[in-house]
Write the structure tokens for this entry.
Amino acid sequence: MVTRQRSDLHMNIPALRKLDAMLIECLDNFKGDHEFTYASKNDNEAKSMKKREEDKWWLPTPKVPPDGLSDATRKWLQFQKDSVHQVLKAALAINAQILMEMEVPDSYTETLPKNGRASLGDFIYKSITVDHFDPDHFLSSMDLTTDHKIVDLKNRIEASVVIWKRKMSAKDGRSGWGSGVSLGKREQFEDRAETILLILKQRYPGIPQSTLEISKIENNRVRNFLYV
């Protein structure tokens, strides 16, 4: 028996290798002489800065000339930052696409309520199912002041999307996923929820992974040990 590489990962390997090479090139650019240096671990200034940045203790402490960096060096550093940011955006996009295409694990669906309203709560459900829906107005009415609140909203909406999709795929009510809401309405609600998720991903690309994403990753780890 042999292992079989997942087709979605195999398709993205060339792009990931290119991004990896770009990132290594950016790191290599910092070799050699520059206007800035990094303080040693025994440097008193470095120790004092580490106390102020204990949450990022692994980062080296930069030291710059008394008069600051030249314009040329500033532009060079900005270019390196922009390059790395583009690598990050591309990697996040690949990761998000792969996660989106993964099957929803049964272990996740088993934890869901039987209707979208129970998942969303009355206020969010009513806001999504109004006659005239505006996603920007909807998000402006939500409390998105912390990552926790953003992820909570994402969790609720992703769960409702899965529920509505299950209802639309159910041939009859005997599956337990039937509903009195018409097919057209469920499709409309799902489209609205998908739009909200897309906006959240664009506005907050660095937020922690949702419950559904974590469930997919954990399920995929188990499947990677299977042989075909």
